[in-house]
Hints:
Blueprint: E1 14-19, E2 31-36, H1 41-50, E3 57-60, E4 66-68, E5 73-79, E6 87-89, E7 94-98, H2 103-113, E8 115-116, H3 128-134, E9 137-138, E10 141-142, E11 147-153, E12 159-163, E13 168-170, E14 173-175, E15 182-189, E16 191-192, H4 198-211, E17 217-218, H5 231-237, E18 244-245, E19 248-250, E20 258-260, H6 266-284, E21 293-295
Parallel strand pairs: 2-5, 3-5, 4-21
Antiparallel strand pairs: 1-2, 6-7, 7-15, 8-16, 9-10, 11-12, 11-15, 13-14, 17-20, 18-19, 19-20
Amino acid sequence: MGTPVLAADLVPLVKTDEPMSRHTSWHVGGPAQMYFTPRDRRDLARFLAALPAGVPVLWLGLGSNLLVRDGGVRGAVIATNSALGGLERRSAESVYCEAGVACARIAKQCVKWGLGPAEFFAGIPGTLGGALAMNAGAFGGETWNHVVSVEVIDRSGREHTRAAGEYQVGYRSVRPPAPDEGFVAALLRFSRRPSMQSHEIRALLEKRKATQPIGEWSGGSTFTNPPGDHAARLIEAAGLKGHRIGGASVSTKHANFIINHGDATAADIEALILHVQAVVEAQAGVRLTPEVRIVGEAKP
Length: 300
């Protein structure tokens, strides 16, 4: 795996051996070999073009729904939230949004524009890029129900526009038509809802706060819901609420969340994920599928 030869102005934008615990909502994770924070799309294109083909790339938004193992990440981590922050209304019912925009900001702005249903974005604790990658959803809404087209960038630094129909989309699942492309923006379509008020979002967030461990260190929902059931119900029925491994435990407020109490390692969290899977499968005959993405290498 080679080292990229970067233009002089890009060098200060790359950190080496950057602890990923600083950039994930679980606050765990070993070092990234390269951690790149572009200023704009031009920086992003030039960096990708300079990367040798064999260097893996991990796209990072706000670091939710992501577990980075304690041994860290080989290759390059690209942080998008500072560079890809554009959000504008393109027509009466369409919104253009770059991948680094926080989903909560999309929800709030669409309320101001009288567009919806977009309030579900307020319940997604990440950026649009991550929401596109996994078809994130909340409060009954899903990201790809509103996608008209996306703008992506490939490993050579070239941008392309793809129609939504080029992607195979399912529940928390998106299969792209080509590998090694990162999302940079999307054109989203909503309906006009002039009567929509900001208090509707506040009510949804209050409901979320009352039922989920908001404010604690977690990765968001740990498992996808199996068909016709809820992961939280199965975990609670298995008697696993509060079960602890090291510094990590299953939330006593919502069983589909795993909490870092401040001293957990990624290994603690991963071991707890595996334990929950094993116990639920033994008791209910259902193998839970992680919603969180697990990346990197275990610590030797």
